[in-house]
Design brief:
Structural class: mainly beta
Mean pLDDT: 92
Largest sheet: 7 strands, parallel
Shape: globular
Strand order of the largest sheet: 1-3-5-6-7-8-10
């Protein structure tokens, strides 16, 4: 298919099934925001090797499993804001080696799995974790994010910052 942009925002779709978008090999932008999506199955986007922008924010997703973003090596921006997560699976973002921007604000996130949550996101420049329910930043949580320029942690319930919590954040800008 020659389609490069698909906007399916504000729809009533509740589940994105595996290989839903197969055949859309040239798609670069996919908009699924402000809908009723509750579940995204693993491999839902696996055939979209040229996808650069995925907006799946303002939905009702409570869980993203490992393998959900499999095959998205070209992805640059991933917007998951304003969903209903409480935690993120270990290595859920693995394979997103070209990701620059990750928005995880307002998703009801309570905890992060130390170094495993953001492992392998070597090109990430912006991470938004604001407006969640995080109470602690654990040791080496951001260790792989040595290109990160912006980290937003405002409006959380942080009371514990473990030693080396911000190890690896050598490029943060004020």
């Amino acid at each position: 298919s020659r389609l490069v942009e698909l906007d399916m925002s504000m729809t009533w779709i509740e589940c994105i099934k595996s290989d839903t978008f197969s055949g859309l090999d040239n798609l670069q932008k996919l908009f699924l925001y402000s809908g009723r999506v509750k579940r995204v199955e693993p491999n839902s986007f696996s055939s979209m090797t040229h996808l650069k922008y995925l907006y799946i924010d303002y939905n009702q997703i409570s869980l993203i499993q490992n393998g959900t973003f499999c095959g998205l090596e070209s992805l640059r921006d991933l917007m998951l804001s304003t969903n209903s997560f409480q935690s993120l699976s270990t290595d859920v973002f693995s394979g997103l080696k070209n990701l620059n921007i990750l928005k995880l604000d307002s998703i009801n996130l309570h905890s992060l799995n130390e170094i495993h949550t953001f492992r392998g996101l070597f090109k990430l420049t912006s991470l938004d974790l604001s407006s969640n329910s995080l109470t602690a930043i654990k040791n080496r949580t951001f260790v792989d994010l040595n290109t990160l320029l912006e980290l937003n942690l405002q409006l959380n319930k942080l009371t514990i910052l473990e030693s080396n919590a911000f190890e690896g954040l050598n490029c943060l800008q004020s």
